[in-house]
Structures are given as structure tokens and as C-alpha cells.
Amino acid sequence: MEAGLIPYTAQPFIPCQKALVFAPHPDDETFGCGGLLAAYKKNGIPTEAIILTSGDHGEHGSSGTDVRESESQCAAKILGIGELHFWREPDRHLNFCERLIDKVSSAIKSTKSDLVLCPSLYEVHPDHRACAWLILEAARRLSVNGYSLSVAMYEIGTPLTRLSHLVDISEHAQSKDSAMACYQSQLQLQSYDDHIRSLNRYRSYTLGEQVKFAEAYWLIDEQDLRESENLLEAELLRQDRLGLSTTPVPDAFQPRKANFLQKLFRQDS
Q1: Whole-prediction pTM
Q2: Which residues fall within 8 angstroms of residue 34, CB to CB, at 6 or more apart?
């Protein structure tokens, strides 16, 4: 039963023809999915990345936008990111809006990406959560209109509680370490590389001694995108739907469709 909730085997990477990473700030693409990007580099799978905000807020932005972007460019070379784009939206003010949904959709189509990577819905930072919702809604609309793609959510500041894939990054750990070391402006504030390395080590918990480091992902496929109400499904209800629940679902917890979901996911889009 446990294997229905967390993988007990790791994959070398998430299969795709081309991956497009959306990062809320300069460094999130490396901390969140740097190992996977290094695996794509090794296997000749093209990648691009879009950094949504300027990263210039508060102490994290004290070094300035130019420095933070140069650090991302340094990391991109190590991880094999083919093209890096900076949208320079205001840091800590990333909004869920039609302008950015359209911009995300255009980027996915123009890059011909079939896998889109973004932070999870459960991240603490508001820009991370806004990024997740922007990508999900853009991907949902594309999927409804016949564009074939999946979304993989990665973890940074908040470990994923719902995940579908563990990627073995043991052989890419040194590359990820080197890429994280590019972000000296951030590492001077806190040892984020140690936190991420510890998280990746922890993710090998169910994978056996041969796997030293792993990254966790929640893969949302085309069916999930079209049945978007399941994305916010209560955990007990999800386990019951998957036949994994050890507890009968009380009547009070039966599914109810919230008005905000109907507003957020416009079925006629």
C-alpha cells in the first residue's frame, strides 16, 4: 500500500521530448530540479528555463538583479539549460492574471515543450504558489484545446506531500552542487545548498542504499489537467479514490465543489 503513496523505485529522469522550467526567482530552477536538468543534459534532452521575477526584493535582492541573473546564467551552463529567459516581474508581487497566463501559454507553445516544470502549490513563498497556479491554468487551457503536455511540480521550501516520481540524481549530485555554488549572493544569507542537499538525501529514504540523492516530483498528466478539481482533493478522499484508504470516508468529508474552483478553472476557456 505504501508504494501507492510514495515511489519505492527511482527513475533516471522524467521522459519528455523537451522540458521547460518556470522558476519564480533566480536559483529556484537549480535548487528545485537541478539534478533532473543535469540528467537531461547527459541524455541529450533539450531544456529551457524562464525566471519570472527580478529577485530584487529585500535582503535576497540586495546584490541587485544583474548579479542574480548572472548567477542563473552560471548555473545554466553547468546544468545544460539551452536558453534562459528573464521576465523581470516584480519580486514578491507575482500575480495570477490573464496577462501572465497568456504569456506562459505562448512560451510553452513557442518552445514546443511537452513537459513543464514549476514549484508546487504548497510552497510557502507567495511567488512560488502564484507561479504554480499560472502554469497549471495555462497548461489546463492548452490541454483542453488539444496541446499534449504534462506538468511536473518540484519542491524547494516545502517538501511535497503528494508526489508521483523520485528521480535518482546520485550521479548528478556534484553537478547540482556546482550549480548551487553559483548563487553566492544567496548562500551568504543562508546555507540553502545544505538544506537542498539534505532534502535530496532524505528523498532516498524509500529507494535503497544504492541511491544517495533523489529529487521528488508530482507529475500532473493531461487527464489530471482536464479533471482539475482533483488537484485540490482532500488527502483522505484521494486515498479513498485510489483504493488506498484505511479509514472509511465520513459523510461530512464527501466531495463538495467549491465556488472558487469554478472561478479559477474556467471550463469554457
Answers
A1: 0.90
A2: 75, 79, 172, 175, 176, 179, 180
